[in-house]
Amino acid sequence: MIIRIRFHGRGGQAMKTAGRVVGTSAFLEGFKAQDSPMYGPERRGAPVASFLRISDEEIGERGYVWSPDLIAVADPTLIEDPRAKVLDGLRENAAAFINVPSLTNLVVDGLTRVTNYDVTGAALRILGRAVLSSGVAGSVVKLLPISASSLEEAVKIEMEDIGLKEREIDLNVKLALECYEGTPKVPIEYATTEELEEFRAVALEQHPPEISTALIRNVGNTIYQKTGNWRISRPEIDYQKCTRCGVCFDYCPEAAISLVGPDRRPVIDYDQCKGCLICYNECPVKGAIRVVKEELVEKLAKGVTI
Ligand code: SF4
Ligand code: SF4
């Protein structure tokens, strides 16, 4: 069997580490584990995901988990954000862990196996800040065939690995165990690799390391990663003030600006613009670029009803 888990959170909530802690817990319990974060949007506040497969046999699948058996959602506002793709590829019998104090009024796309715990509340109380990796890991481990002792050991290993001091490690263990104890169990059902074909699961043969090293087969494919969906603010160019100097074009790290037409007018591709605002900071003409908050960010700031 393979259990596929996808973690969703925002940059800074430590969902990559949560995946590592659960993976290490599984490994200590005798399973094989494969974890990886989503690369690209590592910026505070941006929707991020990480992926974990655990199995009692060799894992032949690679890449993102497109059809998870379990999702763990660190920030419930992401469920409403279509850009975060929290609900992508979910089968109707998939399970979900949501970091919320209560499931009242929470409907997650018809899923029936939904459980919760107030990890943020626990993290603020125990750690004094909303770092959620150990807590979310504790809640997720509760839903898997993994013991609390393996969880405890894994938190120690992973927290030491990222350089935490002994007292901080102890507090993380406390947080993980509280979330483990406090999370109601829901059953996890897993699909075979064959059943996942329609969800783009990649089934690979096992080869020795000499011939199975990772290989990038295609070049120039960053265009398909729509970095525009992690923008909090957008730059907008005032063509009355813009002198067509081209500085923004030179500095944009995403090549999201093109110089168009005979007057080399800078045009921003908002599918690719990630909102770093380097163009705004480098533009030598006052007022030629203004910064506008994205609509969704304003909505989230006002509070979203899920
Ligand atoms: S840097 Fe400013 S003035 Fe220069 S082309 Fe870009 S927007 Fe126009
Ligand atoms: S904010 Fe400006 S510099 Fe940054 S990605 Fe967008 S267009 Fe490029």
Order of helices and strands: EHEEEEEEHHHHEEHEEHEH
Q: How many domains make up the 3D coordinates?
A: 2
CATH topology of the largest domain: Pyruvate-ferredoxin Oxidoreductase, domain 3
Question: Tell me, what's the shape?
Answer: elongated
What strand order characterises the main sheet? Answer: 2-3-1-5-6-7
- What small-molecule ligands were found? iron/sulfur cluster
> Helical segment tally?
8
What can you tell me about this protein's structure?
With 306 residues, the protein is of the alpha/beta class. It has two domains: 2-203, Pyruvate-ferredoxin oxidoreductase, PFOR, domain III (Pyruvate-ferredoxin Oxidoreductase, domain 3); 224-302, 2-Layer Sandwich (Alpha-Beta Plaits), CATH 3.30.70. 26% of the residues lie in helices and 19% in strands. It has helices spanning 15-28, 119-126, 133-142, 148-161, 166-182, 247-251, 278-282, 295-302, and strands at residues 2-10, 32-37, 47-55, 61-62, 70-73, 95-98, 113-116, 202-203, 233-237, 257-260, 265-268, 289-293. It has a six-stranded mixed beta sheet with strand order 2-3-1-5-6-7, covered by helices on one side. A two-stranded antiparallel ribbon has the order 4-8. A two-stranded antiparallel sheet has the order 9-12. A hairpin with a 4-residue loop joins strand 10 (257-260) and strand 11. The longest helix is centred in the middle third of the chain and has 17 residues, at 166-182. It is elongated. The relative contact order is 0.13. The mean pLDDT is 85. Residues 235, 252, 254, 256-257, 268, 273-279 line the site of one iron/sulfur cluster.
